[in-house]
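Protocol step 4 of 6: structure prediction from sequence.
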Amino acid sequence: MATNKTVTFPNGFKLVSDKEIVGRDEETIQCEVQPNGTVKLIDKGYEGSILRRDGLIRYKNGLVESRDGSIRYQNGYKLILGKRAVRLPEGLFILGVKTKTDGSVEFPNGFVLKTDGSLKLTDGYKLDKDGELLEVSGGKNEESIGVLADLSKRIKKRDNALIFPVCTVRLSDKLIQERVKVTLDTISGEMSIKQKGLFAGLGFTEKAVVFVVVIIVLILIAIMLIDRLEKGGASIYQHRKDIFAVIKDFRESLEKNSSEISDIKEKLKKRGISFESQMEEEGREGITAGDSRLLKKRDDR
């Protein structure tokens, strides 16, 4: 590769000699030109990185910048090298970042974006690539902040602050179930936790309130069921009384008819007439009379 004339790479880097290359921000970077046409960068935060012939930089950790001069991390953060800025998934820009030798990025407030997508915070805390806040020894608020909700959920942005969704906070060894709002200032690195929810100021957890409400609802349902069963039982009892009354009337009627038939039998017996033979005779007479009426009707026609 020529050393007497400037060679401009597609990403804006300009090789001015075998030992020096000018970066996007016009900073002079020490380098070594490799036999295959690539350029090994030596200082200014690029230690161990390789400038490829297509103008893309492959960092020591293996990350390769995009065609637009940016690097996308696993957590959705995007490093825009040309502007020395990082764009967060929520659209917030952080300016004035510095690239480090291992491909990580340092923010003005001391945050460090690691190459695995994790975010090392000030005060000894670290956000992993999924946004979970991990406890790291040495933080001055070590006992007040525990596991937070992950960044993959929608988080709101306001001014320079990121507002995490409702999440759970661990205070020492106690896991507090109240809903809290966590605000992380991306400039100062300060983090604040505020209790959130309808019963936040009453000292009750929302789970406890929900439990009490459920118990009250169950008691009301039980009262309604008991009342309905009592009314249903009274109705069944009334129906049973009506049925028994009908059966009693029918039985009394049968007994009365049986008594009358017995009296008739006794009277016929005193006259020397058999009740059964009398019934048969009346039956035959009825049939004969019926036949006679039929014959008369036929003769009339």
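Step 5 (inspection) to follow. The CA atoms of residues 84 and 213 lie 54 Å apart.
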